[in-house]
């Protein structure tokens, strides 16, 4: 199998080599006109295998730095009919696009901090909470990257507060991964009373207007180092947005009062 170069389209390379080798009986016409016919020839196991092999070549060919990985999860609305039973992954749930009338498909994605390259994906039914899929992705990451990149001890997973739970934190604590998580400030009010004057400048050139304060706190069954940050630029944007929303509400109340 010839590895792709920057001049070779990865989609073409994947079709010619990995997909053909793993699924030789698939339709030859892998384009938008026969997309569903072609996809019916691939099993979920083959899809995982294809993703892993393509990812491995990307990492090797372009020297992708895997030391930092970012995990996020979302869902997408589909236009599948409610009576369509051929796509059980499409379910009604908490629609992040606010389309509560449509069936959803959830997607978890892990990308590298080096160039934002997608490395691992996980599709799941739209009626499952994101936090319930975190263990699946951590397990996949440890197993698959152990084969692709070798030592997973050098990997750092970054994830948001949407994945917070005692079981998830215990899982990643016991894994070989390093991690950077996020905590809801409202659950740690002792940290919110720290004076702004105690914060120090992070790096004025790389992060202008950002200050931080380092402390420790107990959360999710353990004691952890925490970094509190404040961005003056982001704060100004939030303040303007809040002022506009407040002004709109005041106008509406004034209109009601006048009537």
Care to describe what's here?
The protein is an alpha/beta fold and 259 residues long. The chain has seven helices and eight strands. The strands form two sheets. It has a five-stranded mixed sheet with strand order 3-2-1-4-5. It has a three-stranded antiparallel sheet with strand order 6-7-8. The chain has three domains: 63 residues, no CATH class; 117 residues, Nucleotidyltransferase, domain 5 (2-Layer Sandwich), CATH 3.30.420.10; 77 residues, no CATH class.
Summarize the structure.
The protein contains 7 helices and 8 strands.
Write the layout of secondary structure elements.
Blueprint: H1 10-22, H2 35-39, H3 44-62, E1 68-77, E2 104-112, E3 118-125, H4 130-148, E4 156-158, H5 166-174, E5 178-180, H6 189-192, E6 200-203, E7 207-219, E8 222-231, H7 232-258
The mean pLDDT is 84
**Class of secondary structure makeup:** alpha/beta
Strand adjacency order, main sheet: 3-2-1-4-5
Given the structure, what is the number of helices? 7
Could you say what the CATH architecture of the largest domain is?
2-Layer Sandwich
CATH topology of the largest domain: Nucleotidyltransferase, domain 5
What fraction of residues sit in β-strands? 15-25%
Supply the CATH superfamily name of the largest domain.
Ribonuclease H-like superfamily/Ribonuclease H
**Any idea what the shape is?**
globular
**Overall strand count:** 8
**What kind of sheet is the major sheet?**
5 strands, mixed
Query: What quaternary form is this?
Result: single chain
Specify the CATH class of the largest domain: Alpha Beta
Order of helices and strands: HHHEEEHEHEHEEEH
Poorly predicted parts: none
Termini Cα gap: 75 Å
Number of domains: 3
Our Rg estimate from Cα atoms comes to 23 Å
Helical residue percent?
A: 25-40%
């Amino acid at each position: 199998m010839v590895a792709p170069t920057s001049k070779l389209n990865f989609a073409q390379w994947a079709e010619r080599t990995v997909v053909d080798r793993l699924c030789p009986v698939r339709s030859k016409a892998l384009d938008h006109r026969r997309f569903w016919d072609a996809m019916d020839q691939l099993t979920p196991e083959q899809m995982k295998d294809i993703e892993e092999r393509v990812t491995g070549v990307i990492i090797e060919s372009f020297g992708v730095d895997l030391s930092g990985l970012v995990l996020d999860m979302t869902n997408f609305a589909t236009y599948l009919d409610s009576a369509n039973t051929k796509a059980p992954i499409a379910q009604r749930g908490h629609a992040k696009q606010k389309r509560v009338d449509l069936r959803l498909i959830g997607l978890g994605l892990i990308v590298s901090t080096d160039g934002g390259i997608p490395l691992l994906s996980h599709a799941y039914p739209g009626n499952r909470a994101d936090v319930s899929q975190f263990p699946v992705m951590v397990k996949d990451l440890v197993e698959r990257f152990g084969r692709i990149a070798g030592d997973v001890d050098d990997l750092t997973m970054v994830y948001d507060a949407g994945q917070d739970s005692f079981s998830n934190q215990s899982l990643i604590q016991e894994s070989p991964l390093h991690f950077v998580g996020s905590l809801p400030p409202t659950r740690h009010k002792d940290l919110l009373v720290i004076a702004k004057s105690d914060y120090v400048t992070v790096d004025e050139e790389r992060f202008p207007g950002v200050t931080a304060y380092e402390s420790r706190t107990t959360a999710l069954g353990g004691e952890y180092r925490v970094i509190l940050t404040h961005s003056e630029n982001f704060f100004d944007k939030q303040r303007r947005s809040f002022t506009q929303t407040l002004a709109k509400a005041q106008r509406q109340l004034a209109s009601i009062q006048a009537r």
